[in-house]
Amino acid sequence: MLLALSATSAPARPLPQKAAATSTASIIRPQADIQRQWPGGTAGSAAAAIDDAVQQPTAVPGTDFIYARNANRITEVSLANLALDDRVPGSVTAWFYANTGATTRLKVDLVRGEQVLNTTTLTGGSGFAWRSLSTTQGLDQAVINALSLRFTSLDGGDTNLRAAYASVASAPCDSTHPALGGYGGFGGTRWPAACWNPFTAQSPFNRALPANARLHPRSAQIVQRMRTDLPKNKQVANFVAHNDGSSGEPTYYARSSDPLYTIHCTANTDDPNGFGSSPCPMEGEKIRIPAQAVPEGGRAADSSKPLYERADAHITVVDQSTGKLTSFWQVQTVPLPAGGGRINVAWAGDSPVDGTGLSTRGSATAANYSSLAGRIRAEELQAGKIDHALLIGVRCDSGQYVFPANHSGLPCTKSKPALATADAPAMGSLLRLNMTTAQIDALPAAVPTWKRTILKAMSQYGMYIGETGSSFYFNVETESGNQYTSRGAPDAWLSFAASNNWPQVAANADYPYAHRLGSMRANADGIDWDAMVWSKLVVLDPCVTQGNC
Question: Which of 137, 236, 328, 493 has its Cα between 20 and 30 A from that of 466?
Answer without folding.
Answer: 493
